[in-house]
User: Fold these one by one.
Assistant:
Number 1:
Amino acid sequence: MYQLNFPNGNVQTYNSQGELMTAARLLGGEAKLISGKTYAFVPKK
């Protein structure tokens, strides 16, 4: 499972890296790798 952490403290998990990246784009940002399978959501400015 891949984990996407949001600045407000929310966390979402995804079955694949592709799903995580697609979700981040749809939410108006991008995912930055923190470590392993954990990513941080970075909103686009």
Number 2:
Amino acid sequence: MSQLRFGWAVPIKAIAPAEKTGVDLDEETTRALVALMARVLVAVVRTGEEDADDR
């Protein structure tokens, strides 16, 4: 199997990766952040499931 290129396709040049950044959070903030992210994830999944149920 081989990939066929379109004649008009322009090769993509690699760019340097972005500078790595980080944030140091205290333990209490990290726990609160994880709890909030979990709540958001559950809400998003439930909404998706409800939409699928209606179909």
Number 3:
Amino acid sequence: MRRAQESINFMIVIGLAVTLFLIFSGIIIQDTETAINLRSLTNMRSINEKIARAVYRSYMNGPGSEENISLEQVEENYTILIRPGNTIITHDLGSNTNPTRAYQVLNNNVTYGRVLIRNQGGWINVSQA
């Protein structure tokens, strides 16, 4: 009888250990997925800020200025819409808007790779190079 009681206690302890292991594994998997998403969102925001700063520099440098920048390719596909006053990056996880403070901007879409930003007569033109 005593051996049977010890076996039952042992099985309960093992069951609790397995249950705790499964619970903590699920939490770790969720944390890993969240960290990956945060890294992707940070990358997208950095790319959007990079192009917004370049648009503003071109606007401030005046007519005739031009700048060639490189936008990184990352795991997610993305497109950046250049508009008067801001840039909007859209990707698999959502979108992010960044102000440029440049309002004489021709609407255009760009993605990763070489991008040319030109100030043509006071109007900013952004195109894939």
